[in-house]
Amino acid sequence: MAAVPAAVPFPAPGTGASTTGIPQPGLAITYAKMGRQSDARRILDELKEISATKYVAGDVIASIYVALGEKDEAFRWLEHGFEQYAAVNYFIPEFRPLRSDPRFADMLRRTGVDPAKALARQKDPGI
Question: Which end of the chain is more exposed for a tag (fewer CB within 10 A), N or C?
Fold first, then answer.
């Protein structure tokens, strides 16, 4: 009979880590939307700590700040991503709360996107 492979240990529930040990931003966003602010912030802090020595996309951290309702910090991290020449998808649902802020239109403009056309298309995808 063949040996049964050893089970891969899963991280403890609520740690925010995947089986790779990397904190999961999607889980932080979910926690924030559920009102579990401290759990979301713990994952956010882990990601920020990792970003000091390894690449973590600025928009990943920004999306968590948006979920926490901290627009200023979200824009700060989007700006960080912009300065890194990172490919940022400004039209993901996580960034919807930022679209009415003039800073959002400015970021689009600086990437060569016409904010009026792009945001109109987001409101009416049939354009």
Answer: N
Contact criterion met (CB below 8 Å) for 25 and 64: yes
pLDDT in tens, 29-51: 999 999 999 999 999 999 999 99
CB 118 within 8 A of CB 88: no
State the pTM of this model: 0.78
**113 token code pair:** 């996107």
Q: Which residue in the block uniquely carries the two structure tokens 């904010």? A: 115
Candidates 65, 125, 56; CA nearest to 101 is 65
Q: Closest Cα to residue 118, out of 45, 110, 127? A: 127
Q: How far apart are CA 59 and CA 33, in angstroms?
A: 18
Q: Write the DSSP assignment of 13-77 as a string of letters.
A: TTS-B-TTS-B-HHHHHHHHHTT-HHHHHHHHHHHHHHHTTS---HHHHHHHHHHTT-HHHHHHH
